[in-house]
Task: structure prediction
Amino acid sequence: MDQRHRLLAQKLWDYHRLQHELSPADVILVLCSHDKAVAIRGAQLFLDNWAPLLIFSGGFGAITRQLWNEPEADQFARIAMDMAVPIESILIENKSSNTGENILFTKTLLAEAQVEPKKFLLVQKPYMERRSYATFRKLWPEKDVIVTSPQVSFDDYLQNYANEELSVEQVVSIMVGDLQRIKVYAERGFQIHQQIPFDVWKAYEGLVQAGYDDHLVEKS
Result:
């Protein structure tokens, strides 16, 4: 990336992150994806006693169905067990294919397990914090939720944490697509509304014009 586009992408990164302060919860819900650093973050939160139950939610999404043959949640759970999280403290939901299904299928999973948590720690990629929060608040508004992610800078994430099979340009395109979804999905009723500052939207438009548009959704 050239410096101008990197600065535009940094603005989107900063907006996507919510900077929620951690506090104890009933459940750690990890929304799985191609980014296994999220599994490590979720497992470490459990080991640090932020909640007594760890859930991994994710089957195959738009990206991972092109990369893997094993569901996201199964891989993430194995990472947690390798970090010494006991298997009896883990629940796995491995059929969902998007953020909305992550939430809805987890609701069903917990109902079947007769677990009724009041507060969630939601773990996601840094640039999906805001959209995950907006989706959770729309679909499960009666629950309290705090959102967190791997605690890294934008540059560190691009260099060290993004999936090795995804280029920097692809990661930035995903970030751009997520910014668009914050607007479009709220209009479609999939998420609560989130205010997008003018300078953030201009950064989004600049990146789209520069060709970072591979992960945009069609507007209805």
